[in-house]
Specification:
16 helices, Nitrilase/N-carbamoyl-D-aminoacid amidohydrolase, 554 residues, alpha/beta, five-stranded mixed β-sheet
Length: 554
Amino acid sequence: MLLALCYPPFDLGGAVWIWAAPLLASLWFSEPRPRKKGASPPWRHGFRLGYAAGFAFVAVNASWVVEMWPVAGTIWAGIGGLVAISAYLALYFAVFGAFAATVGRWKPDDRAAPGNLNRRALFADSLSVLRAAFLNGAAWCGLEWLRGVVIPGFGWNGLGVALKDHLILVQFADVIGVNGYGFVLMFVGTVLFCTFVRVWHEVRSRRRLRPHFDLGIASAAVAGIFLYGLSAMMRQPERTIDLRARVMQMNIGLEDKWSENLAVRQKVIYDYRDLTRAFVEASPHDLVLWPETALPGVFNFPWVQEYLNDHILKGGDFYLVTGLEDSNLENTEIYNTLAVMKGSTESHQMHRKAYLMPFGEYVPFRNAFPFFAWIAGGVIVQDFTAGDSREPLSLEKDGQSIGIIPLICIEDTIPFHARSFVRPGPQVLVNVTNDGWFFDSIQPQQHFDNAIFRCIELRRPMIRAANTGVSGFIDERGSVYDRTGREKNERILRDDVSGSTYIRGSLPATLALDLDPPVTVFARIGDGFSIAMGLVAMGSVLLPRLRKRFPPAR
């Protein structure tokens, strides 16, 4: 429950440093429930406790899943979806619980007992704390990475995301990625908890305090990350090019976009036309961004081509970037795409979404598990087909080619996918999404918070258009403010009074794109750090068992 408070709607991100304390106390200091056949082994005890903690966290953190029920047609589908996702994601907490209760268990060193002034003994407990902190940090980090790889997009809300309001502290993500912060935060959190326990025992025994160089090492690590972040925040590009962009957020309900009433669907089409033409004719624009599947039609339909050519692109000196559905000529396959075009649809470049949203764009195991089909099968009549391209799109500005990293919907929450588009030269991340499936819930804000870290990891800014929010601009440091000083307010489309992003509107901004952006360590090696930590944790489990099975020859 403490971890759930770290994310929207609560946003108590500071609690991410101490959230693990109650869990570690339960794993290390509680006794397994007695059984007739004897007490449960420690790993099973830890597995159960971890699963309970994980289920509670996900049930609160992802409670917005219930909001899908109006689309599915029954509240039970929403509840069933939440229970299913909580039951699955809790498994990662359970594995961590089993690990922390055994291999990662903190065992105070007997040599550190009060009264023992041997120099080596003075530091024994600090060493045991560092061992436990390192192993538990490695296990958690590896599990966070695994969670986002087994089902891409399910790596949502790792520990590092809780620090999204502390930008200086998260700049090191360009080296270790947001998943790497799982190690940092679990390591520091474990040290803090063990320090509290040790000091309490030392004060209670009324003996002198022992050295706590483990706390010093954890503090030095945080200080180093802070100094790195401070340097990154102060860094300025030598050469830039301005990109004048505008995002459109139409706040169109799903029931309107695909309404059987032709007049309602026509209004959607005309609203995009009227708002877009009004702005591009009043002032110069380089790029206008519409959200995911903006129009109630398919790109290769003749009327869609005619509409875009005659009402949007004709005579306009700007690039239109929009989400659209597309299909093959036989309509046997349908794709969720992002298209870039200028002047006419014949100029279009298109990216097909590679990672599809379960229950949003396809029904997993549709034929094998009727329960899954019951949740969303009535809405998703035909599964989308995934694309496989990893080539960026592009636009031209003042003779300079600017790369577009196309991210559709949850693809902006998948680190290894976004990094596959990184190339030398100026680039901008472009995300089109439609979180309208979850109505005016906290899901859009959580989605936006996770997207921030792609900008930091890759040192590329992002332009983001969402049908119901959150739409806006994020710079390469993860900030929603303009560092040049040309724009004073945060560059997010929201209501000035209520703060809600669930509104209709438009937002312009000028992005100063670095002409020579760095190819970061993360862009080069991806989640190498997290994978290495996961392997370390796995090795700490397997090596003792291998030694028992294959003892060294004497």
